[in-house]
């Protein structure tokens, strides 16, 4: 290697040349042609410029190329561009292909001006005749456009290069561009097209493909490409082995990654780092920690990347003391100036709840903070619940000239603030990220939380490359909105596009089947699909099945899934307790709770909410109170509004209205609308006019247009014979233009939903339905049934009241079910309002005379009628 010339000597040599030749004459080429490059090597840009200014026009272009290359090699992008512009301006546009190729590569290093400069250089290439005539220039143009995320423009340049001229570098630049744009399917298609055109891939091509396989989880394709890399003799290098390890680790095949690692004759520090990161990704933190300990004795010098990974390990384990130890090691080894290490430390402190320490590290970082460090800080704020601070950092980041990337936007969208998604969405469109799979999927999740299916669908259709996560997010959006048909259609289209569902996709589809209008049979079909795809034992799937079956009235199926679960998370336990409570099997709910206590399962507020609800539905006042006190005292769980509402339900159902008011008055925060609605419903049952009036006034202060409040208060006055007060309430409804919500019931027969309202005669089989009702009523009266007309809150004759009761919507739905199904078929009816006491009695009697099991879901719970008995024990 040629020894580098000392800077003082170069300056002296330059000065001597000027003395000998005098400044009025051009410098001799022999004396000066080597100066600019040497001076640039030592980063003395002003000296290089001064020497170059004196070079003769004849030799300037040749000398400038060398200076340009040296600027580029030293990473001085802006100086290289400035130098190129000056040379081009002085020497009349004589630019060689090598210089154009070099400067095109350099311009992508100036992110704020890359595309504009690149387009100008493209114009210069065309002017000089180098755009497609030289493969190096064409390749550099492809690379420039791809790095600027202008995939379409880069592809056009690529297609303009003659097929015979495209080399492996050209193809690899194109593949890398599609990979960075998230167009993973296109990368694979281009790879196979490249092979079809007879171009042999090199190790960098294979590395790009392995990276795509890793991001897609397409392990079968990865194995095929792995075999091709062996065929082309590219698999023996450390670089490719590292890429393969990364691929297998990210595809979840960590054992194959470990086997590759063990089979490597030569390993570099990157090999250790990749396997450590892979173990971390696959939740094998202890193995990763052991690997780190082994690496310290096997590697001469650990890198900042090693410490970055091990600090992430501490973050995942939430081991604050271990993170602090490695922080000390980082300071000792001088790695505290590396952005990836500082970002990992910020993440570790944030995950350990030490946001102040994370902010301190962020503040101590160099002024030129990059997009990764800003994104990590924003994520830390969101993790610790400080959304305003996250938003402030997001604004400051842009003010400091750092452009958010797709991960920044997706991170901001994880904040659960209703006003954020539209704001972020607008910026996503402005910065041209709307077609990004990562950002698009994050937007889908955000609009899903808002149940904005139309917005979500428009975003979904704009995403170029839809992977399984994207499809699952769209399906989840429909599921959260209760649109089972929409979710099912998405699942069908996903299968038609050849995208294989995973456990999260199937669990979302099962959640959609829990909507009130969906039939349990559709849920059973998705249960079968989960078995077909061998993911029925995944916790998210089995938990979704328990919840779906419980909410669709099939508590036996929910119990069967629960008993077969190999692993149970807290959601499974809570879903089972809540299911039993809603179905009136309070004792079974309490048995599950006791089983949790015996097995030492950690409980949360949702667990106690379900238990107290079970006690409320069974009238177990003392036991419910004990669980509420235990939650606060023994489990140190702070009661929420939902817990207090459930306690109000517990007391008021049992008629203990004085205790209810004492509880409300002792709450640490003002009572909410749901609590007052619960109390108002109890006042109707127990005919407490004064307390009902108070509850209604409080409720109307929150929701002045809620029709149910007016109706409940009106019914309380009617039951007490206060007709004048009832008329006042009705007139108030008319004044405020509040419409009473119609009561209706529906039943699903052969995948078709049949809806009914009271006295409904619109059904095609209306005559048969009323004939069946008449026959049932006659038989019921023979069995001793006496209609309870107190549930008809109108002044009219008893015969009229009986006729109204006989035509309640739930009875019409039941009559239709009896004539539309074979004898003995279980029937399930859903009603949007609370079932009245008289209909409840009728259902019990019909279960005997028709020998049917009837499941009825009203607005508050399930009723299982069988052999004249209801699961609620007539307490609802």
Automatic annotation (TrEMBL):
Belongs to the PPR family. PCMP-H subfamily. This is DYW domain-containing protein. Keywords: Repeat, Transit peptide. It comes from Panicum virgatum (Blackwell switchgrass). PANTHER family: OS05G0455900 PROTEIN, OS07G0578800 PROTEIN-RELATED. The keyword Repeat applies. PROSITE patterns: PPR. PPR repeats lie at residues 167-201, 237-271, 370-404, 467-501, 569-603.
